[in-house]
Amino acid sequence: MTFFKLVKFFFALLSISTFYNFESEAIHCYVCNSNWKACGEKADISMLKYNKEPCPGPCKIWRMNNIVYRACSYDETERTHNNIDFCYNDLCNFKFSDQPTIVNDSKNVTEVAKNSIQTVNQVARKIRAIKKILCYDCDATNRACSDPMNYKALIGSLISCSGACVIWKNPDKGNILTRGCLENITNKGSGSYHASNGIIYKYCSTSFCNGVLSGFFPVKTTVGTTKPTSVFTTKPAVITTSKPAIILTTTINTSGNLITYEEFSRAITSAGYGPPSMEKYTNFVTQLGPKGGITTKREAAMFLSQILWESDGLKATEEYACMQTGCPGVYGSSIYPGKSYYGRGYIQLSWNYNYEAASRALYGDDRLLRDPDQVAYNDEVAWATAFWFWKANVGSRSDVKNGHFGACTMAINGGLECNGPYQDKARKRFEIYKICMKEFNLNEMPIENGCYN
After folding, report:
1. DSSP assignment of 84-95
2. Which residues are known catalytic residues?
């Protein structure tokens, strides 16, 4: 084995061990804001249970401009802010520390007591040491650093990083392609970070991962995997003030599209999710007709409301319940041993037969059956499979075309939510749909029929 391979093998093992340590210590936090009534100051816990995400801790809750926000705290520097409450227990950010505990269900008394708010100092003592990764540090003045990158020639350009590896176009050097580390992104995910100075950073959180221009899959190593080690979120967690999230401001004119960016963003935030990036909007709006067969704002509202629910606000491209175990055998098997076909992508594509059908329709082969993780970790595939499933199984139904929202829920998860025990989830989908219709400026009455009624 060559020296380079030994080095890459060692750090691949290091990054994998770091991931499992991170995942094992994670708690869950509520993530929403009070534009959604259930997320108000007196939260509806029965509804908030559908708006949570894994978090290294602590959770936080704060008010700004008369809006209540709940989220995970990734940035240690914000924990000196007096206007944010922090807590370290699972789902503890359901209330402010100065609120009395009100329990309507006596069975929840013990759980509420466990989730009492802790002080910032108590939280700080429990924050574990930040794990470091290795990032390429160079720019395209070195031809080996251009696109595609010659990573073998840049093994000496690796730096230690406690944040995320990034790729960006440096305006100070004529927008030259640059790779490096951004220390203040600490959420162990990947995606796009729109900085206040206008620079868009593509970021990722595993060693060597900024060795490609986009997609953020680690460079292949001798352990034989291209699977990124983080599955928690695609949302950057960079919060250095009391602002709830990074808001992308843009002068791009989107009024010629079926849905404008403003309509798209308002629909998502009004449903209680974080503000979407321009990248998410572009992927959504440019593929509605060509790949999804969606030509009306009403059907676009249906599609958006369903993928918002399925992907927890466009941030989860893997089924939470299967992230740890893979749910082997639950969703069928194939000729490829060890592969699981649980929910992935923005519509949570599930079952072996759907993976095979999507793969043959999109690519003419069975690549998604061979490597189902592509649906979770390749954003292009995550969108493509969502639009394929909608066009093939949902949008073609006459009752969906006639505006019966329940019919699209029936097509997506009818066995459990329409004819099964989880009708409350189907009703939540419909509530999101009504919000999308309102923010898309649709004046027609939403039709609930087709699922449980």
Report:
1. EEEE-STT-TTS
2. 310
Crossing angle, helix 278-287 and helix 261-270, to 10 degrees? Answer: 110
Q: What angle do CA 264, 269, 270 make, to 5 degrees?
A: 100
End-to-end alpha-carbon separation of the chain, Å?
64
pTM of the model: 0.48
Closest-CA residue to 208 (of 360, 4, 445, 416)? 4
The span from the CA of 330 to the CA of 335, in Å, is 15
Tell me what the pLDDT averaged over the chain comes to: 75
CA distances from 411 to 140, 221, 305, 331, 404 (A): 48, 41, 14, 17, 12
Residue 397: the pLDDT is 92
CB-count exposure of residue 51 (10 Å: 0-12, 13-18, 19+):
buried
What single-letter DSSP state applies at residue 261?
H
Phi-psi region of 83 (alpha: psi -120 to 50; beta: other; left: phi over 0): alpha
Cβ(115)–Cβ(61) under 8 Å?
no
